[in-house]
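The pair is quoted verbatim underneath.

:::
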Amino acid sequence: MKILISTPYPLNSHNGPAKVVLELFDALTRQGAQVTLLGGDDLVPEWEQRDSFQRRFLYHEALKNFIKENAHHYDVIDYDHEYLPFNRNIFPKTPLMVARSLLLVQHLNKINFPRSKQLRFFIDNFWCRANTKKEIKKRIQISNQTILNADLINVANHQDRDELIKLGIPKNKILVLPYAIGPSHQPLFQNLSRRPSKERSLVFIGAFEYRKGATHFAPILEKIHDEHPDLTLKLIGCSGMFTKKEQILRFFPKHLADSVDITLQCPPEDLPKIIDGAWAGIYPSYVEGFPFGVLEMLSASIPVAAFNAPGASMMLPDRWLASPGSNKELINILLPFLASRESNIKFRKEAIRRSHYFCWDEIAQQTLNAYERALGVKNVA
């Protein structure tokens, strides 16, 4: 099977979305597919010199033209769900057109992330502009056009599927296929201790931003400190909206500052050792596609408490999920994880077991099987 995978991002493994695509490429190739990758900078000249709005417009047109000229080379054309808002009829009929979502933009107009009023002046102007209701509405309109004209839509979790069904997308046009930790990264988790360290610690992996629950960490840490005053909160790889430790610490009262350990940047090869022995993970995000931070914690045998929101809800048992926005429910989930070494070890067994559900080679084979079935139906039609 010949597959074109197009991403609007430069093909750089340090870029989160692009890294997913690169690992998908490797997994599909291992299963025998012939895969071509196309990055945003392959289609848009002077990519780095353009702002995001110029890139978006130019990428729409460049991808459209590329597919029209080259579609006959491929059986499947896989592209981002926000970037091909054109009628299906302008493209050749033969290839299977698959819109892929790494983060389903349709969720964004339904979720209000709590924000810190005291820190508004720290927010980068670009971030504000990209996340205004007007901009989100425009993105959703483009995405709806892209999705409606796709032959298949590939999402990474069940809540994404449910949202698309509400929009009128037939269930049989939606594939739910998650992701996994790459084979070069996975072995790094296999030599960990699998036991809680002497000092209690609570871990979060990911950018520190409002969508991921930035305002929830301080009140949760404060409450848990009542029972476990020795607890340390480790924020790992948290540079993003806020790029300095001082900016992040402003979310916490001064008496908790010494209990917050911040690692702004974390190379993937260092992560397993840094989180090894942590007692629990926390992930108060309001919306994700597939939160790799959760899977990395599970792979390190760390039980995780998260909001019952798109992304984490597919990866964790219901009893580890809290209502979105509820600090109280998250705390009630976390306290048993932190109660004693004996109880923690029991939860760790469940965490590592759940991590085994996500294997790139199995996911790649499921992807190819789904594409083959869809192509068979398409050819009959």
The longest strand covers residues 2-6. DSSP finds 13 helices and twelve strands in the chain.
